[in-house]
Amino acid sequence: MSLLNQIIAAVFTVLIGLVSGTIYIMSDSSKSMLLNQLESHSEDTATHLGLYMAPFIAEQDAAGIETVVNAIFDSGYYEKISVTNFDHEDLFTALRSPEISDDVPRWFVKLIEFDTPYFEIEVTHAWAKVGFITVKSRAGYAYEELWRGTQTTLIWFISLSLICVMFLSTLIRLILRPLKAIERQAEALAKREYIEVTKIPKTKELRSVVITMNSMIRRVHTMFDEQSKNIEDLRRTAYSDELTGLANNRSIQAQLSDKLDNRDDEGPCALFYLHIANLATINESLGEENANNLIKEIADKLKKLGEHYMGSIIGRISGSDFVLLIPHPDNQAMLREVQNLIEAYTEIFKFYNQQPVDKHPIYIAIISSDEDTSAAQILSVARVGIDEAVHSNNQSVHKTLTDSQAGTEFEDWKAYVAVSINTKKLFLQYQEVIGNDENKIIQKELLVRILNQAGEPCAAVRFIRIVQELGLIDALDRAVIELAITHLNTHSTSEPLTVNISQYTLHSAGFDQWLIKIIDAKGINGKLNIEMNESSVLNDVDRVVSFKKLLHSKGIGFGVDNFGVHPAGFSYLYKVHPDYIKIDGSLCQQVDSNAEDKFFIGSLVTVANSLSIVSYAERVERAEQVEQLKKLGIVAVQGFIHGQPKNLR
Asked: Which domains occur in the chain, in start order?
């Protein structure tokens, strides 16, 4: 029961006790008053009858006595009127049953039980004693009068009590309103959310509590911000190039390896390998400051290009070399971008170096690849391309590692993919997220496949580019969600299924309404999770926050995939507050041997734990990794350490 209701109940209890005592006292007082009235009434009646009937009693005229007594007795206020002669011989007696009206409750009669008084007088006539008259009032009359008075009092009390309770309730609500705000503060703090009460109450005690709570909230928030800042500084030191702010060689190697070697849903990509020629000579001729400014401007141009492509990877792998990996490139657009980069870099170089040069200052190798390209292979081909460009003094070189499907065969496959998605002819596999304790299955992440013409499942790498080109990402995600929900309703499973959706799907028209409709039609509370990768979350934090709240209202979990590698950092966790995070596989590759990786992942887990967010690790392949991640606080891992993906049956 809330404090407000307790106070109202206490006040109402006091009022009930007060009125009960008041009614009892009033009833007792009324009882005494009524008894006095009845006694006085009996005395008056007896006196009146004695004066009027003295001649009849002296003559012992029973008929006359009866006539007079009945005239008074019929009024109903008397239980007994008795007339006797001086020798106590009965001349006439009028009796009435001492009944009490049915309108008076029996419990009230027992509670206010009393004996009605009677009065006896001596009658004289001609200075001689001739007899006696005894009058006793009827008890029912007293009870009826008492009950009517009590009823009236109760009605007034109940009416006034309701008015008082409503008034007190309103008044107490106004007084205790700051407590409601403090309650919301405490609930938010338990969820690692930090809100302050802006309206400070005037009540001294409540004012002190609110100010203290606000101060505590600010301190806790500051501690979290400082912790996040320290980890961000560590990330920049360990994984960022100090001059340009791009990923350093170690980070870019890990990201390329994770993206190209360990994932099966990336599809074709293009690598831009940019080389600054004769960097040592440039340092000497321009000076360190101008040379650094030149490098930063070059990095900035390359970074802006990468921002146009979701899922791109950009970094500086050496003093003079930069790389930019673009997923699903358009060849014509790619060539235009290269030419724009060359022109921009040439202008930048001319600004800092006015002297003519024999060779071009900038060389770019563009390596186009299909799905079966490793990180080491694409980098080695890019370096060879740069060497060729430098020796031939050709500013750009374009190489293709593998041939794509050609002509009619590709068009047939493209049409087949479109039909498969539109008709929901998809095949699902899953990879388990296994807990560290007792190898418990935490969830099953779904991987979408399309059965080719031969009936064999094809990984997403074979069709994801086509899906994007045809604008079917939304249709694909919806189809996977429908298949997952159908599976949950037809199979008994204790592990929730996890579906990844894209940013495009999140912004597709009517997606929220469609999702709620399909969820409400099925009982899947607690059996489904939806994930988005970190880049998609950071691109639209506000939309993701509202979407997560919608999912929680329907018992659906929300997680962030590929966590910890985006250059924008992870301060968004405070606002989004997902149920869990999956630390990116590129950070876990060397966690069992690299101290910086250990410390960084441990710090990420600490931040997540401070917000009550569960931490998983993905693309884990070795037992040594599992052991180290467990020590760092990771509660479950996902990857080939637990085997290849399995068919969802």
From this structure: 3-163 (3.30.450.20), 248-400 (3.30.70.270), 424-647 (3.20.20.450)
